Amino acid sequence: MSDHHDLDRRHFMKAGAATVAGLAAGASYERAAHAQDTNKPATGVGRAKPVVIASANGMAAVERAMEQLKAGADPLDAAIAGVNIVEDDPEDITVGLGGLPNEDGVVELDASVMHGPMHKAGAVAALQGIKNPSMVARLVMQRTDHVLLVGQGALRFAKAHGFKEQELLTDKARKIWLRWKESHSKNDDWVEAEELEGAIPGNPDAIPFTWGTINCCALNANGDLGGVTTTSGLSYKIPGRVGDSPIIGAGLFVDNDIGAAGSTGRGEANLQNCSSFAIVEAMRHGQSPEQACLTVLQRIADHAEPRLRDEKGRAKFGLKFYAVAKDGTFGSASMWSGGQMAVHDGAQARRIEAAYLYKK
Ligand code: ASP
């Protein structure tokens, strides 16, 4: 299941606002790198209950991450192990293998990670051919003096660490892309098939157009935090487009003294408001995770440009935030009603309703 935003996309299109426009770097190696981390001063307070939160597509992810936390894993390693399930799933068309491609039919992935105790981050953007960008992002954090690698440089770096390049475009994603390619203009040489399974020829609304991402943040019993956000980004994007997910402070932010926040949805709105950073700052100033998510959504809505507002002035796009505080409280908010988050509080995994600014 993916965190889709088809409804928002339909609104977007109607308004005419958008031109349609166990990998080789294995566990022992990662453990070796983390062994260095143990030299860092522990900042955990030793009073937290372990909690894992994720976007709604992260039910399996929070299960796996919680299992790992209980077995003593580092919170970032646990969160990454969780999202690897979705990155590896060829049926999920929004993350990793099988993600929807850019407008040229090439899958480009974005991801970021942030480790609370070290206050370090790593990220990759527009990475092709490697299905687990979250793991490459972790290596950028651990094995370079940089935070963000993009495109060919990110791919070369991943291969230097033993990741195997592979075709990420599945047949399922290719057929969806082809349907988009053939139907988005009458004034080109691409001709739509007459019979399209599940599609209405000439109706772009019948084509899956997604945002979709997984964000997962983990808090261990020592009060230490880690977070990851990973995505194939906006479907049919202009090649080279980078969303919010790999940008520290936008798609993800972790402050081990305060909490962690992440995002899914319209990355451009998030990028222009540094939202995950702003959420953590709101928590620093005393807001609960849910209040902090709502505060920042309101700011984004207030800043929305006119073409992205409906007739009542409301922001027309979908955007969701997920946050966990160092004391183990958590919350989520969505621009529009109907959003959910996945949570594991140590006892069980469940989906809970997100707060929202606007009712659908
Ligand atoms: N935020 C992601 C991006 O803009 C997509 C999503 O979460 O739906 O690339």
Question: Topology, please?
Answer:
Blueprint: H1 6-14, H2 27-37, E1 51-55, H3 59-70, H4 75-88, E2 109-115, E3 120-127, H5 133-143, E4 148-150, H6 151-160, H7 171-183, E5 213-219, E6 225-231, E7 252-255, E8 259-265, H8 267-271, H9 275-284, H10 289-303, E9 319-325, E10 330-336, E11 340-344, E12 349-353, E13 355-358
Helix pairs in contact: 3-4, 9-10
The chain binds aspartic acid.
What keyword list fits this structure?
eight-stranded mixed sheet, Glutamine Phosphoribosylpyrophosphate, subunit 1, domain 1, binds aspartic acid, 360 residues, globular
Description:
The protein is built from ten helices and 13 strands. Strands 4-3-2-6-5-1-11-12 form an eight-stranded mixed β-sheet. A five-stranded mixed β-sheet has the order 7-8-9-10-13. By secondary structure, it is α+β, with helices and mostly antiparallel strands. It has a single domain (about 5-170, about 210-360), classed as (Glycosyl)asparaginase (Glutamine Phosphoribosylpyrophosphate, subunit 1, domain 1). A hairpin with a 4-residue loop joins β11 and β12 (about 350-355). The radius of gyration is 20 Å and the shape is globular. The longest helix has 15 residues, at about 290-305. Mean pLDDT is about 85; it is low at about 1-45. The protein binds aspartic acid (ASP).
